[in-house]
Amino acid sequence: MNHFEVFGLAPVLELDVKALEQRHRALSLELHPDRLVAADAKARLSALEKTAALNDAFKVLKDPVRRAFYVLRLKGVDLESEGGAARAAMPMAFLEEVMERRERLEALKARGELAQARALADDVAREQQAALERAKAALTSDDVAEATHQLGRVRYYARFIEEVEAFEEEASS
Amino acid sequence: MKGFLQIHDPLKPKGHAVGIDLGTTNSLVAAVVSGTPGCLAADEGDARLLPSVVHYAQTGGVVVGARAVELLPQFPTDTIKSVKRFMGKSLGDVETKKLGAYRFVEGAGAVRFQVAGGQPVTPIEVSGEILRALKRRAEAHFAGKVEQAVITVPAYFDDAQRQATRDAGRLAGLEVLRLLNEPTAAALAYGLDKGVQGTYAVYDLGGGTFDVSILELVDGVFQVKSVGGDSALGGDDFDRAIAERALAAFSLDAPTPGEVARLLQLARAAKERLTDAEQTTLELDGRVFAFSRADFDGWIQPLLQKTGVAVRRALKDAGHQASDVKGVVLVGGSTRVPAVRTFVEALFGQRPLSDIDPDQVVALGAAIQADLLTNADRQDEVLLLDVIPLSLGLETMGGVVEKLIPRNSAIPIAQAQVFTTFQDAQTGMDVHVVQGERELVNDNRSLARFRLSGIPPMAAGMGRVQVTFSVDADGILSVKAKEQTTGVEQAITVKPTHGLSDEEVEQMLLDSIEHGEADIQRRLLVEQQVEAQRVLSDARKQLSENGDLLSPDERLAFEQGIAGLEALAASGTDHSTLKNAIHDLDERARPFVERIMNRAIAKAAVGHSIQSF
Predict the structure, then answer these.
(1) Are B471 and B405 in contact (CB under 8 A)?
(2) pLDDT digits (tens, 9 = 90+) for A153-166
(3) B158 a catalytic residue
(4) How far apart are CA B125 and CA B114, in angstroms?
(5) Do B375 and A55 touch (CB under 8 A)?
């Protein structure tokens, strides 16, 4: 069963997260091993596996970025596994742009410039959102090559934002 | 790493299932009896809190609780307090050695304390002693076996700390039904009690840990949306803040471990007095340090600010603002500090709830969960859905972490990840699993390293190993791997970076079962030996200070009594003989004690009259 099927859904890029949460609650009530106090070990084990798969699916589908990657994966391209970057084959100009931003971030981190790092992350988040929208359009029109390229960008942007968040974490602890 | 798929056998008949709050400062055991949860009192007296203090005696025995607290100043390195702060830690962890003036045994793996009377002990064994004491209490209460427990842990405990707690439960002879997050337990106690719905925040400041959880309570589902906190921040730090100022005021540059231990106890008492008083003093060996509540509030502000950061992050992770929160639950003894209450009230813009005793609420919630997990009649009542507190990730090139399961994902959860070979004819690869939010591997908690081997030699990129990372409902990780081209399942031997291997735990368990019966006898004996030592040291002190009050005959008889008890205590006799001997000496001392009292009163009166003139 793929993640969408777990929730009884067709693969979609847009979905109502509130409704997904509600469905997650209902399915948890149905599947969770804690609801099978008197059942035998086999039934509980099966319930545990189903719940673990449900929660994995929930984690992916509730997040629009992970969801888009997953739709692409269903179309045969896995960008999230190790070596995913190579599969996206990002153009040189983009990689140089990323390198340059990264150098700026390193400099800000070295000086402890939290606010400026946040501003940089906000810029990147806007570009990430734009790339995600283009990726979704490409996925809708079944243009796998373009979707792969755009989600490749998203992947770099996401890593960049994570790095800023890790910096913020560090600064606040 | 324990098996993901270990499941208790529901058909095996069990005694009562209990809930245990294994706290930094105090621990409690609770159970649901006739539908109502309640904390169980100790066999003697009605104290419900068991101080989480364990004393290892010269004779090889163990004393837990209030009696161990009494022995702390005299035996600071043989008496382990706040052991929870050492759970899942190794000596290499930066903060570890600062946590107490113990005699640490150098080496890798779990922390080991050198204590009196035998082999070094790990925090797991020390916690096991506390759990064993609570198990005995519950068994005495029910006059029957107690073998299953829900044990609470700070929500912010990482994998190593959770495993250590589960191992401690096993050592104590308990089947750990669930490791339940403390704030979730508190919410359960409140929720079932008050029938609440909506978004709630739990602010849990204990002796050594701080946790915040944002929960949604909807239609019988308690769903944790996010957790945050600091597994090394609590009331102990408040005590330390006071003690540091006192040390400076006394110009004590190199205090002995004994002085530090006493000073911390005095600081704690002073802190507690400030809950009601505006001013207080702390007195150590005739030196006096006076301070006000306002001083204290100022000293702990930086600590409170740290909790504020964690609260704001948890709200953000849950997709909520402080104004969405319908109620704030206070948990943990440290929330009695007025400055903490003021801080929380300002943070959420509302007065927090505290109508259930903050010391008991976690144990009560744990008892409810234990009942829900063992009582088929109640399984439909409520379902708890919790999350993993810290992200799980893998080390990638350049020592950078790639997140695999992000923090606040619902658990249990299983995720598969495919690893491909990057060299021709590569037959193995190393996997390093870490936990935390930082970017670089070295800044996160290393959970496990393992090697995938036996991959058939193929061209680069062709060898594919699927590794499944599973986090169980206790928040503990396990790993299995499958080589995809051959379909061969791989058993992975994970070397725990912290804590004990399964084999070590098994061995300790076997040892403790073998010695089970002897243990009880020995424990009773140790208690009496400790008591004898206390009586003897009192008697000798009085004899040297007030010996002139006795006639030569009386003195001789008393000295003989002391020598007799001393010999008996050292002889390893049985506990009841020793108890009688202690009683005898007490009786013999009675006329002597009366004369000493009279002298003391006379002295006080003299002092008074001099002052009056």
Answers:
(1) yes
(2) 998 898 899 889 88
(3) no
(4) 13
(5) no
Same domain for B448 and B538? no
Which residues on A lie below 8 Å from B406 (Cβ)?
59
Mutate to test the interface with B, among A49, A58, A78, A81 (most CBs of B within 10 A): A81
The predicted pLDDT at position B42 comes to: 76
Q: Which domain holds residue B544?
A: 515-612
Residue B506 lies inside a defined structural domain of this protein? no
- The verdict on residue A71 lying in a domain is no
Predicted local confidence at residue A122, as pLDDT: 94
Q: B227 has which bridge partners?
A: B213
Q: Which residues of B touch A28 (CB under 8 A)?
A: 221, 383, 385
Residue B223 sits at the chain A interface (C-beta within 8 Å): yes
Nearest by Cα to A36 from B114, B383, B417: B383
Residue at B223 is within a domain: yes
For residue B97, the domain's CATH number is: 3.30.420.40
Give domain status of residue A67, yes or no.
no
Q: What is the ipTM of this complex?
A: 0.86
B132-155 confidence digits (pLDDT tens): 999 999 999 998 899 999 999 998
Residue A145 maps to which CATH number? 1.20.1280.20
Q: How far is B382 from chain A (nearest CA, A)?
A: 9
pLDDT recorded at residue B600: 72
Amino acid residing at B453: S
* Residue in B with minimal Cα distance to A18: B319
User: Are residue A57 and residue A120 in the same domain, yes or no?
Assistant: no
The tally of domains found in chain B comes to: 3
Q: Give how far Cα A66 sits from Cα of A15, A158, B25, B317, Å.
A: 13, 10, 42, 16
What is the token pair recorded at B266? 């005095």
Helix (H, G, I), strand (E, B) or coil at B416: strand
Question: Which entry of B129, B158, B159, B204 is annotated as an active-site residue?
Answer: B204
* Of B310-319, B465-474, B530-539, highest mean pLDDT: B310-319
Domain count, chain A: 2
Domain span holding position A118: 84-172
A70-79, B82-91, B180-189, B515-524: segment of lowest average pLDDT: B515-524
Average pLDDT, chain B: 84
